[in-house]
Design a protein that fits this description.
The complex is a heterodimer of chains A (187) and B (463). With 187 residues, chain A is mainly beta. In chain A, helix 1 crosses helix 2. The mean pLDDT of chain A is 92. Chain A contains two helices and eleven strands. Chain A is elongated and about 55 Å long. Chain A has one domain. With 463 residues, chain B is of the alpha/beta class. Chain B folds into two domains: 287 residues, no CATH class; 55 residues, no CATH class. In chain B, strands 5, 6, 8, 9, 11, 12, 14, 16, 17, 19, 21 and 23 form a twelve-stranded mixed beta sheet that branches. In chain B, strand 3 and strand 4 form a beta hairpin. In chain B, helix 2 runs antiparallel to helix 8, helix 6 packs across helix 7 and helix 9 packs across helix 10. The longest helix of chain B has 17 residues. The two termini of chain B are 31 Å apart. The N terminus of chain B is likely disordered. The chains are: A mainly beta (187), B alpha/beta (463). Strand 10 of chain A pairs antiparallel with strand 23 of chain B, so a sheet runs across the interface.
Chain lengths: 187, 463
C-alpha cells in the first residue's frame, strides 16, 4: 500500500512527537518528518504551522484503538507560499474500539503554490468496531494542489482467500494484512 | 427552454406588486393563523402550524455553515396571494403572470417534453396540469394546498413524518407558514417515462416563499421530478425556505432534479430528505447556481435492505455568493449502498463549501459508500472548503472518500490555446468538462441551458 505522494530526501530529519508535545508546532525552515507516538492519551491535537517558504513536512501516525475511544486531530496550516505537506494516518480498531479522527488542511490567503495531501485509512477487526473520520479542506488561495482521501474497511473474505489459497493460515494472513496496512506510518 | 438566460441574469425582471391577499410584514402567531384562515384549512393543520411556530421561536440560529447574520425575519412578508386558485389552462392565468412564465419558457417546455407542470408565483401555485394518460394511470400531481383539500387522509398520514418541525429552525419555519409546493403520488408499478416539472417564482421585495413538497412512489414506481426557480434582482433580501419530503416504497425509484437559479439577493435555506425502503433507489441531482446564500444538504435514509442512494451535487459561486451544499446519507439497513459526487467551481470571490455525512448504525452491515468531492478555484479571491464526516458503527463496511481542490492547469490551458481558443473559451471548456459527470445526468434540454448559463456566469472571470 504505497500512498506517499511527497518525496523527502533520504536523510530527512525525523522528529518524534509524544502527547506532551501536542498543541501548536512551529515548523522551522527545511524538510522534516514528524512521527506521532500517540500512546494512551485520549484527546490529542497537533497543529503544524508552515510559516517558511519551501518548507516541506510529512506527518505520520498510527492510532491503535483496542476497546478505547481515542480522539485525534491534526491540522496543517500553510501560511507561507511554496510549502508542501503530507499527512498519513492509520487507525486500527479492535475489540469494539471507537476512535475519532479529524484532519484539517488549511491554505491561508497568500500561501500560493502550496501542496498538501492527507490520507486516512481505518481498518476494523472483529464484530464490534466503529470509526469516525472528518478530513477537511479550507482553501483560501487558488494556486494550490490539495487533496484528501479516507477509507473505512474491514478484512474481507476475498482478502483472506488470496492468502489462504497460498497455504497461509487465517491468523498469519490477518497479521500480514495488518502489517501492510500500517507499513506507511511506522516510525 | 429558457430556464436560464441570455445575459448573466435576465430573469431579474419584476412585475408590479398587486395581490388579492397579503399578511403584514413580520412573523407573529397572527400571521400563522391568518395564513391558515386564508386557506380554510382543517384544525389539525392549524395546530401543526402553531406548534411549529413555537419550535421556530425557541430554536437558535445555526452557528455553523454560511453567514446568516444579515437575515432579518421581521422584514419579510410571509404570505402573498395573487389569484384565487390554481388554473388548469394558461389562458385562465392573469395576463401579467402568464407573461412572466412565458418569458421564463415554462408553457413552451410543457408542450414539448413534460408530463405535467406546476407553476408557483409568490406563495401559491397559479397553474397546474397533468397529461391525461398519466391521470388515467392513477398518478396524482397537484399543488399542496389542493392536495390538502382533496386528499386530506394521505396528507395527514405523511405530512412531517420525514422532516418533523423539530428537525431544524428552518424546517420549523416552513411548517408554520408553508404555502404551495407539489404533491406527487405515483401508484404501484407506474413508470413515468417523461418528467414532471415545478417552477417557483418570487416577484415581490422582501418576500418569503415556503413551499412544501411531498412525493410518494409506491412499489416499483418511477418518477423524475424537476424543479426550477428564479426571482427579480432587488437590493433587499428575500427568503426561500422549502421542505421536501420523499417516500420511496419497495423497489421504487425517484429522481429529484433541482436547478437553483435564484437572483443574488435570495437566501435559500432548504431541507430535503427521502426515505428509501427495501431495494428502492433515491437520486438527488442538486445544481446550485444562483442565490446569495444557499444551505442545503439533500438527505437519504436507507431504511430497507438493499436500498440505494445517489447524490449528484453541483455548485457554482461567483461574486458575493456562498454555496454551502452537500448531502447526508444514513445507512440504517444491511446491504445498502450510496454514492455522492460533488463538483464545485468558485470564481470572482465566490465561496463553495461541501458539507456532508455518511453514517451507519450497528445493524447496517455489508454496506458500501463512495464520496468524491472535487473543487475548482478560478482566482485567488475565491474560497473552497470541504467538510465530510464518515461515522461507521458496524465494522463490516467498505467506505471510500476522496476530495481534491485545484485550479485550471496551465498545461490544459496551453493545449487548448495552441489550438486557437482564447483564454476565456479555453477556461470555460475546461470547466464544462469538469462538471460533465453531473450535467450529463440532466435531461438534454436542461443540460444545454446549464452549459450556457455556466459560460455566461463565468464571463470575464478568467484572465
Amino acid at each position: 500500500m504505497e500512498s506517499k505522494r511527497l518525496h523527502l530526501a533520504e536523510h530527512t530529519q525525523r522528529i518524534i512527537l509524544t502527547a506532551s508535545q501536542s498543541g501548536d508546532i512551529e515548523v522551522p525552515a527545511g524538510e522534516y518528518h514528524y512521527h506521532l507516538e500517540l500512546g494512551e492519551t485520549k484527546n490529542q491535537t497537533y497543529t503544524f504551522h508552515l510559516r517558511h517558504s519551501d518548507c516541506r513536512i510529512r506527518v505520520t501516525g498510527l492510532v491503535k484503538s483496542d476497546n478505547t475511544a481515542p480522539i485525534l486531530e491534526t491540522k496543517v496550516i500553510h501560511h507561507a507560499p511554496h510549502t508542501q505537506a503530507e499527512t498519513l494516518i492509520r487507525t486500527l480498531v479492535t475489540n469494539g474500539g471507537q476512535p475519532r479522527y479529524t484532519g484539517v488542511i488549511r491554505i491561508e490567503e497568500g500561501a500560493q503554490n502550496s501542496e498538501s495531501f492527507l490520507n486516512h485509512h481505518s481498518l476494523l477487526l472483529g464484530e464490534e468496531g466503529q470509526s469516525w473520520t472528518t478530513p477537511s479542506l479550507e482553501i483560501l488561495a487558488n494556486e494550490v494542489k490539495c487533496s484528501h482521501a479516507a477509507t473505512i474497511r474491514t478484512v474481507t473474505d476475498t482478502d483472506l482467500f488470496y492468502a489462504r489459497s497460498r497455504g497461509i493460515s487465517k491468523l498469519e494472513a490477518e497479521k500480514l494484512l495488518i502489517d501492510a496496512f500500517i507499513h506507511d506510518v511506522q516510525s | 427552454m429558457n430556464t436560464f438566460s441570455a445575459t448573466p441574469y435576465s430573469l431579474g425582471f419584476s412585475d408590479p406588486e398587486e395581490y388579492l391577499a397579503r399578511t403584514p410584514r413580520g412573523l407573529t402567531e397572527e400571521t400563522v393563523r391568518a395564513i391558515s384562515a386564508y386557506k380554510n384549512e382543517p384544525d389539525w393543520m392549524l395546530e401543526k402550524r402553531l406548534a411549529a411556530f413555537k419550535i421556530f421561536q425557541e430554536k437558535p440560529m445555526p452557528t455553523w455553515g454560511a453567514d446568516l447574520s444579515e437575515l432579518n425575519f421581521d422584514e419579510m412578508t410571509y404570505f402573498l396571494r395573487s389569484q384565487d386558485r390554481p388554473e388548469r389552462t394558461w389562458d385562465d392565468v392573469p395576463e401579467k403572470i402568464r407573461q412572466t412564465f412565458d418569458r421564463i419558457g415554462v408553457p413552451e417546455a410543457e408542450k414539448k417534453y413534460l408530463a405535467g407542470v406546476g407553476a408557483q408565483y409568490e406563495s401559491e401555485v397559479v397553474y397546474h396540469s397533468l397529461q391525461k394518460e398519466w391521470e388515467e394511470l392513477g398518478v396524482l400531481f397537484l399543488d399542496m394546498d389542493s392536495a390538502l383539500r382533496e386528499h386530506p387522509e394521505i396528507i395527514k398520514q405523511h405530512f412531517g413524518t420525514i422532516i418533523p418541525a423539530t428537525d431544524n429552525k428552518f424546517a420549523a419555519l416552513n411548517t408554520a407558514v408553508w404555502s404551495g409546493g407539489s404533491f406527487v403520488f405515483v401508484p404501484k408499478g407506474v413508470q413515468m417515462t417523461i418528467p414532471l416539472q415545478a417552477y417557483f417564482r418570487i416577484n415581490a421585495r422582501n418576500a418569503g416563499q415556503f413551499e412544501r413538497t411531498l412525493i410518494i412512489a409506491e412499489e416499483g414506481a418511477y418518477v423524475h421530478y424537476v424543479e426550477g426557480c428564479s426571482a427579480p434582482i432587488y437590493s433587499t433580501d428575500s427568503l426561500h425556505s422549502a421542505v421536501v419530503e420523499v417516500i420511496c416504497l419497495e423497489g421504487s425509484r425517484v429522481r429529484y432534479t433541482t436547478i437553483q437559479n435564484w437572483s443574488s439577493n435570495v437566501y435559500n435555506l432548504v431541507t430535503k430528505r427521502a426515505t428509501a425502503h427495501k431495494n428502492a433507489t433515491m437520486e438527488w441531482v442538486d445544481c446550485n447556481l444562483g442565490s446569495k446564500v444557499t444551505m442545503k444538504y439533500p438527505s437519504v435514509f436507507l431504511i430497507g435492505e438493499g436500498a440505494r442512494a445517489e447524490i449528484l451535487s453541483l455548485a457554482v459561486a461567483g461574486e458575493g455568493q456562498h454555496q454551502d451544499a452537500g448531502s447526508k446519507i444514513f445507512h440504517l439497513a444491511p446491504h445498502t449502498s450510496s454514492i455522492i459526487t460533488s463538483k464545485s467551481v468558485s470564481h470572482t470571490g465566490g465561496r463553495t463549501s461541501y458539507r456532508g455525512i455518511v453514517k451507519s448504525n450497528k445493524r447496517a452491515h455489508s454496506i458500501t459508500s463512495k464520496v468524491v468531492c472535487d473543487a475548482l478555484l478560478l482566482d485567488d479571491k475565491s474560497e473552497s472548503d470541504t467538510y465530510p464526516t464518515i461515522d461507521m458503527q458496524n465494522p463490516r463496511v467498505q467506505v471510500e472518500h476522496e476530495a481534491t481542490v485545484s485550479k485550471i492547469a496551465e498545461d490544459q490551458l496551453f493545449y487548448l490555446r495552441s489550438r486557437g481558443l482564447n483564454e476565456a473559451e479555453a477556461a470555460s471548456l475546461i470547466v464544462n468538462g469538469f462538471l460533465e459527470p453531473i450535467i450529463k445526468e440532466l435531461p438534454m434540454e436542461y443540460a444545454v441551458e446549464m452549459n450556457r448559463l455556466i459560460e455566461l456566469q463565468m464571463e470575464g472571470s478568467v484572465g
